[in-house]
Amino acid sequence: MASPVPISRPNGLRDRLTIPVLAFGGILMAVMQTVVVPLLPDLPRLTGASAGAVSWTVTATLLSGAVLTPVLGRAGDMYGKRRVLTAALALMTVGSVMCALSSDIAVLITARAFQGAAASVVPLSISILRDELPPERRGSAVALMSSTVGIGAALGLPLAALVIQYADWHTMFWLTSALGAAGVTAVWWAVKESPVREPGRFDALGALGLAAGLVCLLLGVSQGGQWGWGSARITGLFAAAVVVLALWWWHQLRSARPLVDLRLALRPRVGLSHVAALLTGFAFYANSLVTAQLVQAPKATGYGLQLSIVATGLCLLPGGVTMLLLSPLSARISAARGPRVTLALGAAVIACGYAVRIADSRDLWMIVLGATVVATGTTLAYSALPTLILRAVPAGQTASANGVNVLMRTIGQAVSSAAVAAVLVHHSSPVAGAPVPTLHGYLLAFAMAGAVALAACAAALSIPGEEAAGAVRRARGGTRPDRDQTPAGT
């Protein structure tokens, strides 16, 4: 079982820098995931590789992040969260150095897979904040940490575009390598190692089974559009995912120390939070995907603005700033009304943002407004999700449980990418000899994302409140999960 949670008060420079340093790590992780996007059109020429091979610089990061997030979360609960967080940031930095040193596509794909380890930064940091901060500071800190995903994504695209426009593309990766090294050093110096542990033997078989199942699932989802949804490869991948994940589920239920505590995950407060995370990830990701393509579309389409990649990134920047500014508001709403209300409100605001997009996607100011409204809803929703998890699981399982929650967001984003691509490919027309999505296709994508956001709102409202959960625990003779704590090693 986990050891009692020591609540510390800020009494020095290092303590005061804990939150900013962890937030910097989260922003850096999101920047690393997006900096390659402006390079994608030119990478075939720069590396001599095919467009299909180049797409793996994105797919590799997605797959490794999905696999490693719950694994590193569990490792953090067992062996020390700061130790695993530092290792994840170090792997991310090593990957960036590899990208800076090479133009070989195989090396770049391997390096991007290393960078996927950084996906575990946010759940590990949130778990550290729970262990180290007093309750009155915890809510706003967790909300800020959750928002770093959107903040970093909004900053990464224009930053990368500017560097690529005025310097050699390797310079961008040298810059991110320096930032990564600074992040590793800052975490090592400013963040304390949490004494809260969940001892036991690491479930290596469970980790391998989860990795195999997720790779089959996400590879099928991400490559279905290129390989053909009815092709033997995609059908085989989905069949393998079902078989492997079913066996993994059986193993986890029988294991004394499972990688993922499925009995805990199936509790309504935890399970419905994971469902809401998946749906919110789908709805949020469509905003970035569609906005970038819409504003760069040729003017000959009748709706496109033909903006440069730098201008496109600046269109998304207000959303990132909004996420930074509104994270304290999210914490206040959660403190006053509960995190499930904040989550439901955030999902509803995302749906409203897509309603704005449907109403007008021709004028730049309306496009930016709609994207910013979606970012506002994402701030509320993403800030509430870890708080729901923290209140529903034992202290010794916070990193692994939040890792699973982030995994569900990742799966939602992967499905969103495939679904949006399918809609836009189906609704395309030739412009200057090349197929370009129609405005109707974009509006359908907005409507789809808005409907999923409403489903996320319904899932959030279905999560039992504190009173209902307490009544169930009393009826079972149980206690609050975060109070079921005995000293480590007992």
Task: Explain how this protein is built.
With 490 residues, the protein is mostly helical. Helix content is 77%, strand content 2%. It is built from 19 helices and two strands. It has a two-stranded antiparallel sheet. A hairpin with a 2-residue loop joins strand 1 (428-431) and strand 2. Helix 10 packs parallel to helix 17 (398-426) and helix 13 runs antiparallel to helix 18 (439-462). The longest helix has 32 residues, at 135-166. It is globular, with a radius of gyration of 22 Å. The model is unreliable at 1-7, 471-476 and 478-490 (pLDDT under 50).
Structural class by secondary-structure content: mainly alpha
Nearest-integer average pLDDT:
86
Task: Flag low-confidence runs.
Answer: 1-7, 471-476, 478-490
Terminal CA distance reads 7 Å
Tell me about the largest β-sheet: 2 strands, antiparallel
How much helix is in the residues? Answer: over 70%
Strand order of the largest sheet: 1-2
The gross shape turns out to be globular
What share of residues are in beta strands? Answer: under 5%
Instruction: Give the H and E element order.
Output: HHHHHHHHHHHHHHHHHEEHH
How many helices in DSSP terms?
A: 19
Instruction: Using the CA coordinates, give the radius of gyration.
Output: 22 Å
- How many strands? 2
